[in-house]
Amino acid sequence: MTDLDEQQQLEEARASLQQLREEEAVAVRAMEEARDHLAEVQARRREAWERVKGLELEQAHNA
Description:
coiled coil
C-alpha cells in the first residue's frame, strides 16, 4: 500500500468519524427534546388526574 493510499484511507476514516459525531449530536438533541416533551406531558397528566380525583371527591361528598 502506498503512502497516498494510506493518506486517503485516513482522510476517509476521519470524514466518517466527523459524520458520526454530527449524527450523534443530532440524536442527542432529539433525545433531549423528547425528554422535555415527556416531562411536560407527564405534568399535564398529573394535573388532569388531580382534577379528576378532586371532582370525584366533590361528587361523593355531594351525594
